[in-house]
Every structure is written in C-alpha cells, then in structure tokens.
Design a protein that fits this description.
This protein is α/β, with parallel strands linked by helices and 268 residues long. The chain contains eight helices and nine strands. The chain has a nine-stranded mixed sheet with strand order 2-1-5-4-6-3-7-8-9, sandwiched between helices. It is globular and about 45 Å long. It starts with 10 loop residues before the first strand and ends with a helix.
Length: 268
C-alpha cells in the first residue's frame, strides 16, 4: 500500500483520449522493501516501522512534487491555465463543469481531464458538449497525481493560451496532498453536505484558492447554515474566496464565470 494515502501500489491507470481510444499505463511506486523482519515484538520494531512509513510518504510526495514542477513549467511556457476541481462525490463537479464548458468553453478554449476510479461516464458527458476531453481511470487510486496528469496532457495536447480544467477523483482527503502543477485548486462543496465540512477536512480547504458552494437552490428544503460553512472555510483559510452557486438553476454562475475569466486574463 502507498503509505501516503492508501492507494494500491502498481495500480493500472487507463487514459481514454477524445476519440475514445484507451491506453493503459502502469503507475507503480518503486520503493525498496529490503528491510529484515525478526521474530521479536519489541517497541524498536514499531518505531522502525513508523520511521519507514514517514520516509516512504516523504519520497512519494517529493517525487510527485518534482513532476508537478515540470507540469507547471509546461503550463507556463505554453500560457495554459490549469485548474484542479476537487470535491466529495456528488457535490456537483461534473454538472458545474458541463455547464461551464457549454457556456464558456469556446471563449476560453476549455479542455478537460476527467479523473475517476472507473467508468468513462463523466468523460462522455463532457465529450457530448463538444469540448476536448481525456478520461483517466485510476483503478484503486483515490486521486490524480502529477504523473497521471502529464500522461493526460500528452494525449489532450491543449492549445497554447487555452484553459485545462481537471476534475479530480471525488475525495476530500488525498487530492489535497498531491500537487498537479496547476495554477489554482478549486473546492466544490454542496448544501446537501454538512456545513462543518471545512472544519472536518481542513487541509482540503486550506490549499484552495476558491471554494464554490453548490446547489444553493435546495436551501429552502435543507437545514444548512451557509454562514457557518463560510466561517469554517475562512477559519482554516482566511484568504479563500467563497462563491454560492446553483449549477442547475444558474444562481451565482456569472460570479464563477467572472472568476475564470479573471484568472485566464491574468495568466495571459
């Protein structure tokens, strides 16, 4: 097991290009495990195991950061804005992304990398809008990493000056740990989740440049405290911007589009 997040070592990653052709890639973590195991059960063994775990975590993240730096240089060299959308499952990432691509895709040259453990379903939804999309299925993996993104970019081949939006695997823990080389991290939460989410998952909200609170059209039917949610988000990340939107009804969508336009224009 990968000591950093629990993903299975050596998992096979499937990349599906815009034409629906799949390519398999092995993403094994090559770590040496040549330590000896004796039959004793002393405290020293436990301490050694803890030390090895920390070392392994540091190695995994250091390797990822190196690859993320390469991705970041490529984005900068080509004037491509990269955004990393993260959320728990069911928060409405794909619905928001689908609407964004339909209404803003041509203006900003949006292409998409879709991350899921299995199925091409989300990629097919984006492909139906006409936007270029690459689907990455991580298998046992619970997040995208910088190496997977690099594979996806080689297949996607986004145009200079365009925007790449990455929809990460639905998970409020592991995606926050792995830098992809993106310009900004965007966390999408929904009013169907608890208002305490920012305090329960502080690292995810701490790394975000933007938090989008989705499904606000459902507020009349739910016991959700928006002020508590916003207060919690800013307690863990005082500088974070919070937008309230409904991806289905369109409430607040212009603010989201304005944020994207501003980010894109600033890079150019």
């Amino acid at each position: 097991m990968c000591a950093t997040c629990g993903c299975a070592e050596g998992s096979r990653v499937t990349v599906t290009d815009d034409a629906g052709v799949t390519h398999d890639h092995d993403h094994a973590h090559n770590h040496d495990h040549d330590h000896a195991h004796d039959n004793g059960h002393g405290h020293g063994h436990d301490n050694d195991q803890g030390s090895r775990t920390v070392t392994l975590e540091q190695a995994v993240l250091a390797r990822n950061d190196e690859l993320a730096t390469r991705n970041r240089r490529w984005f900068a060299g080509n004037g491509v804005l990269a955004l990393n959308l993260m959320s728990s499952p069911g928060a409405g990432k794909t619905t928001l992304l689908e609407r964004t691509v339909i209404e803003l895709g041509a203006e900003l040259g949006i292409s998409v990398i879709e991350g899921d453990q299995e199925t091409p379903l989300d990629g097919e939804r984006i492909r139906a809008t006409g936007a270029p999309v690459v689907q990455i299925n991580t298998g046992a993996g619970c997040h995208l990493d910088a190496d997977m993104l690099a594979d996806g970019l080689r297949t996607l081949d986004p145009a200079a000056g365009s925007m790449v939006i990455v929809e990460n695997v639905g998970n409020l823990v592991c995606p926050a740990l792995f830098d992809l080389g993106e310009d900004s991290k965007v966390v999408i939460a929904s009013v169907t989740e608890g208002a305490e989410k920012p305090l329960k998952y502080p690292h995810m909200f701490r790394v975000a440049q933007l938090v989008v609170l989705n499904k606000i059209d459902l507020l009349p039917y739910l016991d959700f405290d928006v002020e508590q949610f916003v207060e919690g988000a800013r307690r863990v990340n005082p500088d974070v911007e919070v937008l309230e939107v409904s991806a289905t009804r369109g409430d607040g969508i212009d603010q989201w589009y304005g944020w994207l336009r501003d980010r894109h224009a600033r890079l150019q």
